[in-house]
Amino acid sequence: MQLTAQIVAIIVALAMLASGSVKILRTDRIVGLMSNVGVHGKTLTVLGCLQVAASVGLLAGLAYPPFGIAAAAGLILYFAGAVGAHVRARDPEWQAAAALLVVSSFTFGILLVAA
């Protein structure tokens, strides 16, 4: 079980690092996608920084599990907010993706606690 949690932590951390980086760099594609949801300017940078911080927390959780648990809890809240934003924007294509990430983050948190 511990090996599974470690592998998932690394995969999720890399995904959050990539996603956060494009938000911080404000690539054209992400600016367009986030505009549809009503996220602009500094908010986009803040969201990217939160994702990068989560990736650091997940990786730090490999050495000290409470950091990983806190990062997973933060991601659950982050993606729950994302689901709400996509529902509010009536963006059904991304609602499912955000909901999947909430479930994935929750499952990962359970793996960390069980490990």
TrEMBL record:
<keyword id="KW-1133">Transmembrane helix</keyword>
<feature type="transmembrane region" description="Helical">
    <location>
        <begin position="44"/>
        <end position="62"/>
    </location>
</feature>
<feature type="transmembrane region" description="Helical">
    <location>
        <begin position="94"/>
        <end position="114"/>
    </location>
</feature>
<dbReference type="GO" id="GO:0016020">
    <property type="term" value="C:membrane"/>
</dbReference>
<dbReference type="Pfam" id="PF13564">
    <property type="entry name" value="DoxX_2"/>
</dbReference>
<protein>
    <submittedName>
        <fullName>DoxX family protein</fullName>
    </submittedName>
</protein>
<keyword id="KW-0472">Membrane</keyword>
<dbReference type="InterPro" id="IPR032808">
    <property type="entry name" value="DoxX"/>
</dbReference>
<feature type="transmembrane region" description="Helical">
    <location>
        <begin position="69"/>
        <end position="88"/>
    </location>
</feature>
<keyword id="KW-0812">Transmembrane</keyword>
